[in-house]
Amino acid sequence: MSNKSNQILKNTNAQILDEFNASIMFDKELYAQDIKGSIAHSQMLCEQGILTKEEQEAIEKGLLQVKDEIESGEFKFSLAFEDIHMAVESRLTEIVGEPGKKLHTARSRNDQVATDFRLYVQEKTLSIKKQLKELISTFITVANKHTTTLIPGMTHLQHAQPLNFGFHMLAYANMFKRDFERFESSYKRNNFSPLGSAALAGTPHNINRFSSSEKLGFEAPSSNTMDSVSDRDFALEILFNISTCMMHVSRISEELVTWSSYEFQFVKMSDEYATTSSIMPQKKNPDVPELLRGKTGRVYGNLISLLTVMKGLPLAYNKDTQEDKEGVFDSVKTVEISLKILNEVIKTMIVNVDKMESACKIGHLTATDLADFLVQKQNMPFRTAYYITKDVVACANSLNKDISELTLDEIRGANSELKDISEEITMYLDLRNSMNSRNSFGGTSTIQTVEQIKAFENWLEKIN
Which residues form the Fumarate lyase N-terminal domain (predicted)? Predict the structure, then answer.
């Protein structure tokens, strides 16, 4: 091979290696956190006499200029700088000269990236919490309008017992409330600053980690520098929290797809969130809920990817953890847009009250009420009551009626044990009475649903 060919190959290999090794093209997402951390670090160094006041002021002014250049699009990101830290520091030094070279005193890129990334995760945790609060408020608003609207409650996708639609909406409000609490718990657990940990063992410089931690809004500095530079639990937590949240998004999306089908027609989605078929003009497809359901898979993948990266890493920092960010960035963007869109879908959907209530007359939803009546009022063993109820259901089927529509004579004729049953049984079989009879704490009765809404409203007023 000629010398010229060798040189071309070396140059090509060097370019490939630069692309493989660099993170600048994705970790530039952290520019604001990197600059914020650097300003806090410079202020602390000045307090400790490591930088002069003039040097610190020049550094801070220069860093803010770099931030402006990035946000205006003037700053050019290049593989010549391996990561966002070196890109910012290099430009800072161009602007302020010698003081810029002093900024990295008493820190390493190991604690710098851990700090930047943790700041990003903490900020996004707070913003996702805010979105969850808004979504929960929307579910409560819908629930408030439908505390008496009947809907068939299902298990195994089979009609089971009558509920009110407000109660059904509150089930999702509870799911997203748990999501909110998970993010809240993660924020508190991870609100500790790695800055000043240096490479892994701390630094001989006379720094004050408590000062820089306070400036960045952390509760305190992290307690072990070796753990601090290698810990990515905070990233795994936000990925897990997002995955669980998106699972809940997917579940309500599945119900929306089902409810908006021709067979159900329980809800009608705004035209903004459904599209017509390209060849069948009569069809309106629930594309948005389907996409929400589908995007759950990608956030699961991001969680599993980072768990796999971290599972065999020795202490302390390893280059493998460069793979920690893209999945988090992707999952954060996915959940943010998903929560925003789901909130609008729920706000704008039209509830078909008549269709829901008609569907409650399919499947004999009050059969359990008959069995409960026989146990409570006739002192029957439940198993006996169960088989008598089956006879009444069979009678209703033969008459092409729902059990709630049977007359007293029809009920009495279904089984000899019922020949003297009191007229009170017809009240027990009434769909709305059945729903309201579930008045135990947390149940579906209108009274309990209203109480649950009040509890949610009180909770919403108290949370940040």
Answer: 12-301
